[in-house]
Design a protein that fits this description.
Elements lengths: L5 E7 L32 E6 L7 H4 L2 E3 L19 E6 L2 E4 L6 E5 L5 E5 L30 E8 L5 E4 L6 H8 L17 E7 L2 E7 L14 H4 L8 E7 L5 H15 L8 E6 L6 H15 L3 E3 L8 H28 L4
Parallel strand pairs: 1-3, 2-4, 9-11, 9-12, 12-13, 13-14
Antiparallel strand pairs: 1-8, 2-7, 5-6, 5-8, 10-11
Helix pairs in contact: 4-5
């Protein structure tokens, strides 16, 4: 299945049906009076996050979504039928953005989240509605209200617990393939990964989701390369895993480039917990490992883990550390939710 995380969609709610002008006409009833029914309401346009989707590819082949119009009212006080609603089914983690591509209308972060995008028009009143003591035979009815037409953008931000960071060819896809059933493309050249990949990783009986995005280069936050297009997919992650290529001749510069780019991107990425990992240590001898780890720790100001995605060395310890960060994040969110509920007053 092709991956698509941004789609432009045109929507229109249904117009309301017109009210009816009708009078009761039956044998032996000389003055039947008005009996025109009201028009039906137009259908509305909704968006709902559903399970089983992780791409917006369906919206590449269908961009127009129009709800049904309400049916007009009829005589004998018969109201018109309401128009059918239409629902845009999107993956969890989809943001609904206005046409200006800046205003966020809704964020459907969880399965079952639902939002009204365009309300259907009300049906018009029939002439029965206008009957009064002074006007017992009204000959007017209201037309239905027009539906709402608008353009929106759908932007998908994948729901993952761990986000992989690194320069192109830093070994992110190899790590994902070594720890999960995901099978991303792996090769010895930069930009092998052209779209995000998700993998379910398990350690000590606990599973969590890891997102691999294309590698970043200098200037990615300003549009260079591919990474800036996909940094949004790791905004929701609980922890970031920063892989640094131990075989690179510019190891410290590579590390600083990634840190600078996530700081420039914003959206709180720089404040997220981050594990710095010296990768590809299978290509280094013991002395080189220690030297590069100490240099990386000096620049990063924190602990540095060592790992080899090929040989598997150090992977289990890193997975356990990631799990601890994820558990801590979930506990913090649970406490915040409880505080919000406790502070509510009727």
């Amino acid at each position: 299945m092709k991956f698509l995380d941004l789609a432009k969609v045109y929507i229109r709610s249904g117009s309301g049906g017109s009210g009816s002008v009708s009078f009761r006409r039956e044998k032996f009833i000389e003055f039947g009076g008005p009996d025109g029914g009201d028009g039906g309401h137009g259908g509305s346009v909704w968006a709902e996050a559903v399970d089983g989707l992780n791409t917006l590819i369906d919206f590449r082949y269908q961009q127009h979504f129009f709800a049904d119009n309400g049916r007009p009212g009829m005589g004998q006080q018969r109201s018109g039928a309401n128009g059918a609603d239409i629902v845009l089914r999107v993956p969890a983690g989809t943001e609904i953005i206005d046409e200006d591509q800046e205003t966020v209308i809704a964020d459907l972060a969880e399965v079952g989240d639902r939002v009204l995008l365009a309300k259907g028009g009300n049906g018009g009143f029939g002439n029965l509605h206008f009957k009064s003591s002074t006007n017992q035979a009204p000959r007017r009815a209201n037309p239905g209200l027009e539906g709402i037409e608008r353009t929106i953008w759908l932007r998908l931000k994948l729901i993952a617990d761990v986000g992989l960071l690194g320069m192109p060819n830093a070994g992110k896809s190899t790590f994902l393939a070594a720890t999960s059933n995901a099978r991303p493309k792996i090769a010895d050249y930069p930009f092998t990964t052209l779209h995000p990949n998700l993998g379910v990783v398990g350690v000590d009986g606990v599973e969590f989701v890891v997102a691999d995005i294309p590698g970043l280069i200098e200037g990615a936050s300003e549009g260079r390369g591919l990474g800036d297009l996909f940094l949004g997919h790791i905004e929701r992650c609980a922890v970031l895993l920063h892989l640094v290529d131990g075989s690179s001749n510019e190891l410290l510069e590579d590390y600083q480039t990634i840190v600078s780019e996530i700081e420039a991107y914003g959206a709180g990425l720089a404040e997220k917990p981050r594990l710095t990992v010296l990768n590809k240590i299978d290509a280094l001898d013991a002395e080189e490992r220690m030297f590069l780890r100490d240099e990386l720790a000096r620049v990063s100001g924190g602990d540095v883990w060592m790992m080899s995605g090929v040989s598997g060395e150090g992977i289990q310890d890193i997975l356990r550390s990631l799990r601890d960060h994820i558990d801590e994040n979930r506990l913090r969110h649970r406490q915040d939710d409880q505080e919000d509920v406790g502070s509510w007053q009727p």
